[in-house]
Amino acid sequence: MRRILLIAVVLLSAFIGAVLGAMYTLRYLDNVPDYTSIAQHQQVRMPGGSNSVTPINFENAAHLVTPAVVNINTVFGAGEFSLTPMDLNFDPMARPSGSGVIISDDGYIVTNQHVIEDATGIEVVLNDNQRYYAKVIGKDPSTDLALLKIKAKNLPYLRYGDSDQVVPGEWVLAVGNPFDLNSTVTAGIVSAKARNIGILRDKNNLQVESFIQTDAAVNPGNSGGALVNLKGELIGINSAIATVTGSYSGYSFAIPVNLVKKIMDDLLEFGAVQRGLLGVEIRDVTAKLANDQDLDVLRGVFINRVNAGSAADQSGIEAGDVITAIDGHEVGSVSELQELVARHRPGHSVLVTYRRDGKVTSVKTTLKNFEGRAAITRHPVNFEIEGAQLEDVAYAELTRRNLEGGVRIRTIGPGKWLDAGIKKGFIITHIDKVNVDNVEDLNRILEYKSGGMLVEGIYFEGTRAVYGVQW
Fold first, then answer.
1. CA 112, 193, 173: angle at the middle one, nearest 5?
2. CATH architecture of the domain covering 280-366
3. CA trace torsion 82, 84, 90, 91 (10° rounding)
4. Which residues of 20-51 are buried (b: 16+ CB within 10 A; e: fewer)?
5. In the predicted model, what is the mean pLDDT of residues 114-120?
6. Which of 30, 136, 152, 176 falls between 20 and 30 A from 56, CA-CA?
7. pLDDT tens, position by position, 349-367
8. By three-state DSSP, how is residue 102 classified?
9. Taking all residues of the chain, what is their mean pLDDT, rounded to a whole number?
10. What is the spatial distance between Cα 243 and Cα 346, in angstroms, rounded to a whole number?
11. How would DSSP label each residue in 141-181?
12. What is the pLDDT of residues 229-238, one digit of tens each?
């Protein structure tokens, strides 16, 4: 019995020793390398090494994007009329140009507002050299964006990406028409986000600058072109360059697509941007500000003042609070805050997170417009313009006359139409070679006209006529 017990003790001791020895050996091997090649060790510890990185491929994205980026040529009405029969064959080298991006298969195009600002005529040239006259659906100086429309179908267009998911270091492509060199593709990386470079101006001081900064080469003519990721998704509209020479000097700036999406929908539906506002005066939190104001944070947006009756005021937000997030998105600068709020219309609610005396509070806030109302501003349709009573042309008549749209002058009195020689019953079908769909469309077209314009149409008996109207 004792012999058996002795054997059992010996075996148990041997087992415990083996286990402890193995543990020691494994620990020793883990902490003290016994290799003579670091490169070999890296391969052991991280199989595949640098070979596991997917090769960068620009070709697919460039192939997807270039057909949807257009050249935009503008005409300014320095003479009696913005377009005359002698001017219908434009010389592209004789006028300013920029770029645009097709965002729908039926001809909606986004570009920069500064590309078409004050233009009396806009021509769009597609990648395959097809040419169209474009109408301005709306434009917004506060974001430097504009929406155009051409009469076309089945066009290639770019899908929206998500600019919130864009990160510094990510590869991007810029596509546009610098120096009238069509379909130019350049590559770079995202250098930073939410950049404010102080180039935009707005009469109500509502400009929004939250640019994506890249080192992709962008030059004059690229404005309004596409910034895309390697999937070929639109993540920004190229808008500006950092330069002292007028040409590319290392950095370019694009409007993030998540803001573009909202602005385009506003211009499409209302013809004007619907801005929701918190109603606060703000500045970035800095180390000096944090020290001066005895703040317990070094990142966020400090509120200098809250406007009486504003969205922020009615939500209990006060001067001295530090906003740290909007709808769960952290904000570290004024530009980030402005972009996140500018994505919403008046009447929409956002969740504002702020710090006060070391306490974090989140509150739902219903945004208001510049006039202090939580309502959408709609432009009324004017059916009387310059002494003429206007009406839409019935669909049956349009079909019978083989017209795509038109506005009939039902009665006419003293005014610019009469001065041009237009008579009662005239159906306006085109202005400066751009089709006129209805009275609402005519209102929108005339809003952006100045100087002379070419008005085409047809009378009841079928006589076609063209008039020069000084607007």
1. 60
2. Roll (2.30)
3. -90
4. eeeeeeeeeeeeeeeeeeeeeeeeeeeeeeee
5. 89
6. 176
7. 999 999 999 999 999 999 9
8. strand
9. 87
10. 37
11. TTTTEEEEE-S-SS---PPB--GGG--TT-EEEEEE-GGG-
12. 999 999 999 9
- Considering the entire predicted model, what is its pTM? 0.83
User: Given this model, what pLDDT does residue 354 score?
Assistant: 97
Fill in the amino acid letter for 174: A
Nearest to 392 by CA among 429, 424, 433, 445: 429
The token pair at 302 is 């400090």
φ, ψ of residue 383 to 5 degrees: the values are -95, 5
* Torsional sign, CA 205, 210, 215, 218: negative
β-pairing verdict for 427-431 and 407-412: antiparallel
pLDDT higher than threshold 60 for residue 216: yes
Q: Comparing 280-366 with 384-470, is the CATH topology the same?
A: yes
Q: How many CA atoms lie within 13 A of 257 on its CB side?
A: 20
For domain 384-470, give the CATH superfamily. Answer: PDZ domain (2.30.42.10)
Q: What is the CA radius of gyration of the chain?
A: 31
Q: How big is the chain, counted in residues?
A: 471
Name 455's bridge partners: 431, 467
CA-wise closest residue to 340 among 208, 212, 235, 237: 208
Catalytic residues: 114, 144, 223
Task: Measure the CA–CA gap between 430 and 150, rounded to whole angstroms.
Answer: 13
Q: Return the closest-CA partner of residue 449 out of 71, 81, 73.
A: 81
Contacts of 343 (CB under 8 A, 6+ apart): 258, 259, 262
What is the structure's pLDDT at 57?
86
CATH domain 54-274 topology: Thrombin, subunit H (2.40.10)
Report how far residue 289's alpha carbon sits from residue 307's, in angstroms, rounded to the nearest whole number: 21
Structure token pair of residue 162? 């998500």
- Lowest-confidence range among 92-96, 133-137, 154-158, 319-323? 92-96
Measured CA distances, 7 to 10, 12, 18, 163 (Å): 5, 9, 16, 73
DSSP, residue by residue, 215-235: -S---TT-TT-EEE-TT--EE
Q: Is the pLDDT of residue 29 over 60?
A: no
pLDDT > 80? residue 82: no
pLDDT of residue 175: 96
- Shortest CA distance to 133 belongs to which of 85, 77, 72? 72
Q: How far apart are CA 126 and CA 317, in angstroms?
A: 50
Beta-carbon neighbour count of residue 114 at 10 Å? 20
Is 234 within 8 Å of 101 (Cβ atoms)?
A: yes
**CB burial of residue 124 (10 Å; 0-12, 13-18, 19+):** buried
Domain definitions of the chain by residue range: 2-51, 54-274, 280-366, 384-470
